[in-house]
Amino acid sequence: xxxxxxxxxxxxxxxxxxxETALQRRFVLTAEDIMLALFDEPGETLRVxxxxxxxxxxxxxxxxxxxxxxEDLAFLPPGHxxxxxxxxxEVYGFLxxxxxxxLRRGRKRxxxxxxxxxxxxxxxxxARILADAGLTYERLTDALNSLDRLSG
Length: 152
Hints:
single chain; mainly alpha; Double Clp-N motif; two-stranded parallel sheet
């Protein structure tokens, strides 16, 4: 698993919030939790990119929240007690993907942009919600590049 040292400060803050929320609510961290935190990121990279692409961010947030609310809040992965945060395999997968994206771009740290693109690169209901709203991996990459958020 990745250590906190690989994450830049913004990415650490973005991941801390859904972890704390997950511990309070259901003890399971999902990609939806992290995506909602990315929409609420202090640097507002995702919202700025949505504005640039004329994508309705509030509509996406609403759909993700509905998707997240449909999950079984009593679910605990096998081997997890009520005082320990469960991290779903899909979350580990996209964190590994974000790490690879950062390394390929010559970055020493994983940024919120890498987290976002890694979530979008995976085939999931979450990625479909984003694509249906016009926020595809390719369009977002172009917008982030134009904002100079992905350069090495």
